[in-house]
Structures are given as structure tokens and as C-alpha cells.
Amino acid sequence: MDIFSLNSNNNVASLKQVPLTCNGHTRPIVYLHFSSITENGFYLISASKDGKPMLRKGDTGDWIGTFEGHKGAVWGVVLNSDASLAATGSADFTAKIWNTTQGDEVFSLPHKHIVKSVDFSSDDNQLLTSSNDKIIRLFDLNNINSDPQNFIGHDDNIRQALFSNIEGTQFVSCADDKTIRFWDKRSTKECFKLTFDQKPNGIEVTNDKSILSICYDQNVIFFDLSRMVQIKKFQAPTVIETSSLHPDKNVFVCGGLDFLIYKCDYNRCETIDSYSGHFGAVHCLRYSPDGELYASGSEDGTLRLWQNTIGKTYGLWKYVDSNETE
Questions:
Q1: What is the three-class DSSP state of 323?
Q2: Residue 253 burial (CB < 10 Å; 0-12/13-18/19+)?
Q3: Does residue 276 contact residue 258 with C-beta atoms inside 8 Å?
């Protein structure tokens, strides 16, 4: 437990960000996902090149369990809405679905190449995967033995594919062909495309499916999914691999090759502060569903939790007014 003392000479404004370090992985952490808030709180799952995705309590980072079964690096992870199921995508050419209570494998879905990302639809009835075979697959989890729908159009490895509407009929993908593509389930075709001069490093879709964030080169772009237009752009002093928008859409965090995490004002797209702590590139950042913290994963193999509001008692961060204890 981390306890910090406050007094008249040490106010909240003077406190430094003190991240909580969650050890356990032995190789770089490449993706993170928080569940929604459930009746038992919320949870965090991490993907690592060590091939062993880990489940933790979302507010404290306390380890719950490790999913054993993949035979290669795990690139993508996701939890369903009540955190009862997890999905993982791996270099062993499979996506797997797990029971989070027992840690048992429920389904293994074969692919023809490395699986880079996985995503549940909002109603938990579908699973979306992307692969280095340049194919996006949509699985019907109510008829898991049926063939998935295939969506073809990218010309290079696909890094991510995420649902982009609540109904689960539209999704967005980013790939090494320097494009972001938007797809429609009903037509099984690409319906919109963005082209860049650099490979996009990653994307995030807000939980309400209203805003897409795109990281490429030193930029974070915010894209309105209802109007299909760019609404904001932030330029960082380093190549940015990942970003995450606060649930209230007032701040966002991003990070990349200089090992730092940048916290930024969303409306002005200006840096508020930057934080050090990792000893390698920051590969993934995600805000918790309550907005009280964000998690980071790095090339250094550690997962760290950071407070959104420094000086607030929350989780394992305990702040005590020393004047009241004297």
C-alpha cells in the first residue's frame, strides 16, 4: 500500500505522479483492455510477447490469474461486457476464448497467420479478429462452429480491428498498408478509407462508439464516427504508438518511443504534463471505465497504473492529512 502525507507545506498541487508497478510478465506488454464496470468492480487484461495474458483487478492491479495455452506471443486481448469471458489473439495462429472464473479455454479459433487483435461486440454475441493474412474475420459466438465472415481489402498486415458502432454492424481497421478502413457487416465491403503517409501505429474507439483516435508518426488524430470527419489533432515530440481518451472526453494520454506518457487537454490538444517511469517504449495505454486511472504497458515488460487525479485517495493510493494526525 502506498501512503502519502499531506500538510500545509505539501499540498496536492505539489505531489508527483507515483505509478503502481504490476510485475509478472517476462517480455514486452503490447496491449491492454479494461472491462466495463461490473457488480464486482472492473478488470484489466494484458497481452505480452511472453504468451501468457494476465487478468487483474482493475482498480489495484492485483493479479487474479494467467491464461495458459498459447504457444506464441499474445498480441491482442479483450474482456466481454461483464468480464465473464476473455478473448486473446496470438502468434500461434489462433484466437482463443476463455472463462475468466476458472481460467479454462472455451474455444480455439484457427487462423492462417498471426492474430493481431480481438474485439467483442457490445452485446457480446460477436468476436472480431484481425490477422497478418490481411483478413478481418467476424465470428458469430452463438454459432461458433459456423464459418466466420471474411473482410478482405487491406494490402499488408492488419494491426487492429475494432467495432465502431453499438449495433455491431460496423468496424474499423488499421494496417501496415498506411490505411484506416471502415467496414459494413451487411455488405461485407469497405465503405470508407483514410490514407496516411506513415503506417498507423494504433487505434482506439471510445466505449460509446462516438470517437476514433488514430496514432501515426508523432500525431494523435481524433475522428468523429457519426460525421466521419477529423475533429482534432495533437502533435507530440516523439513517435506515438498509443493513446486513450478519458471517458469524460476532457483529457487524453499518449505515449511512444521516448518512454514518456503525455497527459493532454482534449479540447485544446495541448500537453498538461508528462510522466516518466518506464524504461522502454510505451506500447499501450488505456483509461479505466471510471476514469480514475490509466494503465500503461511497455517494452520493459511492466504494467503500470497512473492516477488521473493526483492526490486523490483511490485504490492503493492513500493520502493522509498529517495535520489531522498530529
A1: helix
A2: buried
A3: no
Domain-wise residue ranges, the chain: 17-309
Q: What are phi and psi of 12, to 5 degrees?
A: -60, -35
CA–centroid distance for 26 within its chain:
19
Locate 188 and state its grid cell.
461485407
Is residue 4 classed as helix, strand or coil in its secondary structure?
A: strand
- In the structure grid, which three cell numbers stand for residue 39, read together? 457488480
What mean pLDDT do residues 169-175 have?
A: 97
- Say whether domain 17-309 belongs to CATH 2.30.30.30: no
Q: How far apart are CA 232 and CA 96, in angstroms?
A: 36
Residue 7 has pLDDT above 70, yes or no: no
Low-confidence winner among 12-16, 19-23, 319-323 (lowest mean pLDDT): 319-323
Which of 185, 175, 126 is closest to 150 using CA atoms?
185
Rg (C-alpha) for the chain, rounded Å, is 19
pTM above 0.70, yes or no: yes
**Strand 251-256 with 240-245, pairing:** antiparallel
**What's the grid cell of residue 41?**
468492480
Taking the mean position of all CA atoms in its chain, how far away is CA 275?
19
Q: Which of 31, 50, 267, 298 is nearest to 162 (CA)?
A: 31
CA gap 127, 77 in Å, rounded: 11
d(CA 253, CA 204): 12
